[in-house]
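Dear colleagues,

I hope this message finds you well. In preparation for our joint manuscript, I am sending the Transport and Golgi organization protein 2 (Plantibacter flavus) sequence together with its predicted structure, so that both groups work from identical material. I would be grateful if you could confirm receipt.
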Amino acid sequence: MCTVIIDFDPGRAWPIAVLGLRDEQPGRAWDPPGAWWPGLGDGVRGIHDREAGGAWLATNDDAPGGPRAAVVLNRREDLDMPAAGWTSRGVLPLEAVTTGVDAEDARSARSWNLVELRPDGVAVTSWDGSSLRSIDVAPGLHLVTHEGPDHLDVPRVHRWRPAFLDVPSPIGPLDGATAASWEPWLRTLRSTTSVPADADEAIVRVDDHDGLRLASLSVTALSLGTDGAVLRNARLAEPGRLPEEFVWE
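The corresponding structure tokens are as follows:
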């Protein structure tokens, strides 16, 4: 199950920093960040799921009201399939950064948490199969998992949130003058691999769930400011295991 680390500091030039671990079936094909949805506008980019056509994470530099980003995480509820079939959760980030999430799509998908990011705010919306709930997230550092933000009863949050709190957060994009500011988070991420990938406390994970094997497939670094989003992604050649050197796309 995915893990997303967020730092929100409204006083920074780049208020939003996100480090995302995407967990998915290793055989499911996907594409690196790009403008895979030309019908949604030139500013929409993201990580493209080839099977369903949606996005795990999407950004839009041209969104009404300013740049925004969104990322979807699975929840654990086992829901009954609607008569019309499931809506892919991958439509939700794309809707979030363009028109806004459609309520019918939201309720006809398997359970989810959606993190919506703007330079002036962060919100997490959850669908558990019975109700839609949305909360605004305060400035500071947060770990979001299948349970939502900062649930300390989730072992990986309890174990590793203090470690991320103890190091400086990135102050800008993972390139140019601010690239080095990502090193404390990346070192901390590497330190989490001291536990096995199938351990409850693992962030870089291999997870058997509902008869499926899910594993961490990529690491995403996102910076969001008033001028737009800078998105970098590193594919893990071996699911559930960090490479010696990240190759950023």
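For the figure legend, we might mention the following. The mean pLDDT is 96. The longest strand covers residues 212-225.

With kind regards,
E.M.
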